[in-house]
Specification:
The chain is of the alpha+beta class and 235 residues long. The protein contains five helices and nine strands, in the order E-H-E-E-E-E-E-H-H-H-E-E-E-H. Strands 2-3-4-7-6-5 form a six-stranded antiparallel β-barrel. Strand 2 and strand 3 form a beta hairpin.
């Protein structure tokens, strides 16, 4: 398994890739349906990964398949994701855990003239491989730093950082981004030629993530100003 990149917590986590710009699809990651929507460019795939908040981790335990939503962060050419110590996901990890990780961003509702041609504009990523448990406290701390800064850059230095007990109680897994592909749908409505004359409204309903005004915790000192990264949140 590839070695995890060195990360300096004081300087922040690195997102630099050391792998080829183009990812050769495998039989498992090649886009078969709507192949024109396939994306194998590493930079484009990483941009999708960096924008998302939640990944879904698929794995099989005791002949039962599970899909678990969890927080994640990309660090270089790896995805780090949370795993509960009591989770089935963390049992029998001596040889690694075969996983399928998916991330999806929904950018718009595509309203066609016919129900059959309704769609969505979206960006999705599928990553496959063997995930391993992060054992070293330094790498685990850097992964937690990556989780925090991915959500709100600047929060790590404001909040109390994990202590030794908390680090030991936290389980994190690492997946190398070696077998990965994306699928993207962008653009206007695509109707059948005969349907363009129908008196039916058609178009795109754009979707985006928008943050509301921060709500102060009732036990938070009222003299403390709301951090700018909370009031100016953008995605």
């Amino acid at each position: 398994m590839p070695r995890a990149p060195a990360i300096n917590s004081a300087l922040g986590f690195t997102t630099v890739s050391t792998m080829p710009d183009s990812i050769a699809p495998t039989e498992r990651t090649r886009i078969v349906r709507e192949p024109q929507r396939a994306v194998y460019d590493r930079a484009a795939i990483y941009e999708i990964l960096d924008e998302g908040f939640v990944c879904h981790v698929g794995f099989t335990a005791n002949e039962q398949t599970y899909v678990i939503p969890t927080m994640y962060a990309r660090v270089g050419d790896f995805i780090y994701f949370h795993g509960s110590a009591a989770s089935r996901m963390l049992r029998n990890l001596s040889d690694g855990l075969s996983v399928c990780i998916t991330i999806t961003l929904t950018d718009g509702l595509v309203l066609a003239r016919s129900v059959f041609n309704h769609s969505m504009n979206y960006r999705s990523v599928v990553a496959l491989g063997m995930a391993s448990l992060v054992e070293g406290p330094a790498e685990k701390l850097d992964a937690l730093h990556a989780f925090t800064e991915k959500i709100l850059p600047g929060r790590w230095n404001d909040a109390r950082q994990p202590n030794e007990k908390e680090l030991k109680a936290t389980s994190i897994l690492r997946l190398p981004l070696t077998e990965i592909s994306a699928k993207v749908r962008v653009g206007p409505v695509e109707d059948d030629a005969d349907d363009y004359g129908l008196k039916v409204w058609a178009g795109i309903v754009p979707l985006r993530l928008v943050a509301d005004t921060p709500i102060r915790d009732e036990r938070c000192d009222s003299s403390l100003p709301v951090p700018t990264y909370a009031t100016n949140f953008r995605r």
